[in-house]
């Protein structure tokens, strides 16, 4: 009977898994999980500017919002785009077809400071009305 | 081509609380006008550099 043996890591071959990345965000003291969902049904062609006040976002004085990422969908195959900004700052322009994954990089890389509103400009570049959804996730952190 | 004021439903999760808000939104039938406004708002810094 042949016995199959697995060589130990780093023995005889390169170790391609030197670190373990956790997929579960860890919320510690003075941090709150944060998520946002915007839906827009039957949006006629054009642009829809949606302003979400800082007070509604939760990044009031003493807290800052660290954006992590998000998903945007349109219920039809067509190149669509969304622009997100805050004051003062620009999160970016994202172009997608049906579904787009938005990555802001590490949680600390895109910060929305206290008292900054979030502006989402949703474009319907199609010739007929379409339905959209945007979900964003991040972390609120106490800074004072 | 016109701008129309409307509303959008937003659901926000902060910690263990879930709140649903109705926020203002503005629809523009001409998306290129929105692009121009954005360029005016954010493009002036680029002009200063050049």
Secondary structure blueprint with pairings:
The complex is a heterodimer of chains A (144) and B (50).
Chain A: E1 31-43, E2 46-52, H1 54-57, E3 63-74, E4 79-86, E5 89-97, E6 99-103, E7 111-112, E8 118-124, E9 130-142
Antiparallel strand pairs in A: 1-9, 2-8, 3-6, 3-7, 3-9, 4-5, 4-8
Chain B: E1 3-14, E2 17-28, H1 31-42, H2 44-49
Antiparallel strand pairs in B: 1-2
Folded structure, characterized:
Chain A is mainly β and 144 residues long. Chain A has a single domain (40-142), classed as Jelly Rolls (Sandwich). Chain A has one helix at residues 54-57, and strands at residues 31-43, 46-52, 63-74, 79-86, 89-97, 99-103, 111-112, 118-124, 130-142. The longest helix of chain A has 4 residues, at 54-57. Chain A is flat. Chain A starts with 30 loop residues before the first strand and ends with a strand. The model of chain A has no long low-confidence stretch (mean pLDDT 85). Chain B has one domain (3-49). Chain B is 36% helix and 48% strand. Chain B contains 2 helices and 2 strands. Chain B has helices at 31-42, 44-49, and strands at residues 3-14, 17-28. Chain B starts with a strand and ends with a helix.
